[in-house]
Amino acid sequence: MIGTLSVSLLALLSISLPVGVVLFLLAFGIDQFYSSFPLIRGLGNMVWSSSKSATLIAIPFFVLLGEILVRSGIASRTYSALDRWFSWLPGGLIHANVATATMFSATSGSSVATAATVATVAMPQAERLGYDQRLFSGAIAAGGTLGIMIPPSINLIVYGFLTQTSIPQLFLAGLVPGLLLALAFLVVTALICAIRPDLGGTRRVFPFIDMLKALTELLPIIMLFTLIIGSIYMGWATPTEAAAVGVAGAMLIAALTSGITWKMMEASLLGTIKITAMIMLVVIGASFLNFTLASAGLGRELQEFLGSLGLTPFWTLLVIVAIYIVLGFFIETLSLMVVTIPIIVPLVLELGYDPVWFGILMIVLIEMALITPPVGLNLYVVQGARRSGSMSDVMLGSIPFVLTMGLMVAALIAMPGIALFLPAVLQ
Q1: Domain ranges of the chain
Q2: SS3 letters for the chain?
Q3: N or C: lower Cβ tally within 10 Å for the chain?
């Protein structure tokens, strides 16, 4: 059944059907051919039960927060400020791309939104200052992936919802790996451009007084991050309530800095509706698919397969990592999470691994999927913001950052404390 499911999934995705629709079609097919009783009769109850959780309300709030930051111009001003602080390094403005993505990730919760924001404001600069289009584009795509690691993260919320794992603990666990990954991107960029200075474009040095003045443009993002994460860990708000507080804070900052117009709010709300509807269709479709898979015995079949290999827990974990890397080439990231979590996570827990730690490990693997062809969403987002050039440029430029993520996977497996240190200290 595993082979049939994989082939069917790839075939349906290849004809450009929406991912949520594909998940429902697969569920109906499994129900028809593998289940002993008609599960479709419970579809209405399944749709309701999988979408009524208060935890999921955080998703549209975080999406709206990101939309407001982009459309009010706060993100553009943040990028300009970081340009003044990082453009003197080998690689120049490429470092500002990663730094902006890191700061924007700390408020948006979405990798695609982060990549789209940075690409929109950065790509014109690359063409004007003579940067290598491949490395510049690849850095934006890679930096955008930090949106699902650095809290608040929509994907971590979904993981916590599906596995009943503490979302505040997941947020804490994702902070250090996310920042380390951002730092690693900066180091990799500097090394490449030190070896090949022609790839790094024009290095610019700004007067120190201008750099100090630019710090004021970073205050809105820092304040929002402190407001959202601080309210969670001080016990003042749940993640859902903190998301709502974050939206209120973003609107207040937008009103004080650039003003709030009806056109801006209309575009923000419309963007939020579109993104949230897509996410919820995937979550609901995956919930029904997981229900049918469990009824058809796929979880038992996978357990028997891994058990028949006779591997130790460590080698079994490496097999699971390899499965995620391969599936990430072909399956959209949120879909990959919600389809595999109910099957894989119970196996991982049986092996004795921590669910919080595995959640962070999975997020890094999902980040890799965002910048690996043929279905890497961030690659298409960045390419869409370019005025010229082929898709292969973005793909080639992302290779150093994919390898860097691979090193982070190895580091998390070798040193779980990278993810578990903060939750243990602040528990």
Answers
A1: 54-285+376-399+410-426
A2: CHHHHHHHHHHHHHCCCCHHHHHHHHHHHHHHHCCCCCHHHHHHHHHHHHHCCHHHHHHHHHHHHHHHHHHCCHHHHHHHHHHHHHCCCCCCHHHHHHHHHHHHHHHHCCHHHHHHHHHHHHHHHHHHHCCCHHHHHHHHHHHHHHHHCCCCCHHHHHHHHHHCCCHHHHHHHHHHHHHHHHHHHHHHHHHHHHHCHHHCCCCCCCCHHHHHHHHHHHHHHHHHHHHHHHHHHCCCCCHHHHHHHHHHHHHHHHHHHCCCCHHHHHHHHHHHHHHHHHHHHHHHHHHHHHHHHHHHCHHHHHHHHHHHCCCCHHHHHHHHHHHHHHHHCCCCHHHHHHHHHHHHHHHHHHCCCCHHHHHHHHHHHHHHHHCCCCCCHHHHHHHHHCCCCCHHHHHHHHHHHHHHHHHHHHHHHHCCHHHHHHHHHHC
A3: C
